[in-house]
Amino acid sequence: MTGCLKNVLATIGCLTVLALAGGGAWVFRDQLAGLYRSLAHRPPPSAVAERAESGRPSAEALREAQSKQAAMGRRGGPGAVVLTPDQSASLIEAGLDRAARRAIDSLEIELGQDRLTLKGTLVTDVLGRNLMGPLAALLEGREPLVASGPLRLARPGRLLWAPDSFVVRSFPFPRNTVPRLIDRLTGGSDGGVWISVPPTVSDVRVRPDGMTFYRAP
Predict the structure, then answer these.
(1) pTM as predicted
(2) How confident is the model at residue 90 (pLDDT cuts 50, 70, 90)?
(3) Is the domain of 73 the same as that of 35?
(4) Could you tell me which residues come within 8 angstroms of residue 52 by beta carbon, excluding any fewer than 6 positions away?
(5) Could you tell me the residue range of the domain that residue 24 belongs to?
(6) What is the pLDDT at residue 48?
(7) Do 27 and 57 fall into the same domain?
């Protein structure tokens, strides 16, 4: 009888351990998947499913973007202007805090369907160990970064890009930590990147081939 009872208790103990392990694996499934991709040298999944077009910032593209913005701000200006991917990337980079621009090299912007995806090389020390947690021991000083999220007109004269996905190397950070990561990069407090536009802009639409600003009637 005692032997049977021990066998039953041992079985229950094993099942409990398996249940806890399974629950932990489910909670951290994204991070475990990232660890597997990193060890297997597989690229992370795309932050956007649809086709996206890339753009890189440059001084010339920024001047062109600012010229289009200025045209919308003038009386009788165009009803809409379309920024190319390069012009969009230049505008996003200009909206980043100076510290963020130093922390991200080789910046590139992909335009998707109402979403922007930023790619670059991140200086991981900027984030700090308190935000990276256990991943701090696995990451090098410079790692690939992919951050993605929607862009919208938050108020007259101000666009807000609010990333909801943040992947360093192959490790996706939990969604609820993304605003704090963005704030650490930008020095902000609202989890987003603010971009100035003329107060005459009434709406913005992001498409793979460009970003369109619409003028208020």
Answers:
(1) 0.71
(2) very high
(3) no
(4) 46, 110, 111, 112, 117, 208
(5) 2-39
(6) 39
(7) no
